[in-house]
User: Fold this.
Amino acid sequence: MSKEGEMVCKRVVAIVLAAGLLGACEQPLTTPQKGALSGAAIGTGIGLATGGSFGQVVGGGLIGGGIGYLGGSALDRAR
Assistant:
């Protein structure tokens, strides 16, 4: 892995850790929140696995998070 790739991985890990620390809450996650978290993790993982640039990886995480939130909201409403 190149130095640029290592830096991207370190940045993504730092962002994910920061989001995890800032997103910690006293109440359990709702279904839409779980969907957003899962979607963001999957989107970021796919971006990293395909070797995308930092912007593509972050974009994948944002798109995945949005889609996950919408899916989780739909599931929550169906209950």
Remarks:
- The mean pLDDT is 79.
- The helical segments are 3-22, 31-49, 54-78.
